[in-house]
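::Amino acid chain::
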Amino acid sequence: MRDTIPLGRIAGFRVNAHWSVIVVLWLFTWSLASSLPHDVAGYSRVAYWVAGACGALVLLGSLLAHELAHAVVARRVGVTTGAVTLWLFGGVTTLQGEAPTPKAAFRIAIAGPATSLALSVVFAALAITLESTHIAVVAVSVAWWLAAINLLLGLFNLLPGAPLDGGRLVRAFLWRRHGDRVRAAVGAAHAGRIVAIVLITLGLAEFVAGGLISGVWLAFIGWFILSAAREEEVQATTQQMFGGMCVADAMTPKPHTAPGWISVEDFIQCYVLGDRHSAYPITDRDGCTVGLVTLRQLRDVAPGLRATTKVRDIAIPLQNVPLATPAEPLNALLQKMTPVGPRSRALVMEGGKVAGIVTSGDVARLIDVYRIAGTEPVPTPVQSREM
């Protein structure tokens, strides 16, 4: 997810915030500040807005706790976890790998909703405690609001369809039942499409009935879930298609490398013009690969600075480039490339040297070839009895 702001590290995990979090904070602050005067009278307008802002910030912390629960459990079961990112629809925890068993997948999925439901109980207990003291009446209302929102968040995420946590639970159940990870992912994605259609229908019905904002918001959430479910289904079928294949089957072998110490201007004149490649591994003077430079990065250098800017200064460092070996399963490499984005590229290393490069275009071409030939390989189901 791009356009994020790093917030630091919590429990060893990088935490980022997407710019859309500002929209979420504003919406919840406005919603709470607007509803508080109906529940508790006698406070100033400023007090209501301060209470609304505090409630929104605590809710954001609740969303972060939900995602961190996924990350912590994933780490405990041996799944490498990337950044935790807060955004418009709550949060995203980037898992750089698959759960080893259905039981592990179940534990990762249930951790988030369980945390939200537990927080709902905590805030309800806080509200009851504050209410018994007969002080800070506005704080009581905020605590009840936080309890209700966390309850709604936990229950909503348990809806049985991908990409919601409930869909992950369905996937774990189907994986345990059929012993086939890919079949389970497709089944969870189908369930997600059904959930999305129901939400869109309910949203449109509420819109027609007069609930303009809530109806549009519910339909929009349904549309997002529908799009995400379709994307997960495509990823699952792609994994099925590439089962048993290795990186060497998809890579472009022996890509052109370039020295990192020359200027961007010399690089364009000597390597880019007349060449069809869109990415180049960069080497140092000892011949070691140190990074990757793409046409997009070259375009970002102003023409007046190209003669004085070194290629190594704009290249993607090697530690930030997905790496693989020729014999590595292709599905494993695709999992590394997915978090980087649709324009991700991976370098294939062998004996410390670049043996090939894999781009999204290489993967798309391989998909087209197999679909035309009608010879999509089917992987052997993964058997597991744990749950």
User: Anything to note?
Assistant: Residues 156 and 343 are 32 Å apart (CA to CA). The first strand starts at residue 4 and ends at 10. The chain has a mean pLDDT of 86. The chain is about 55% helix and 15% strand.
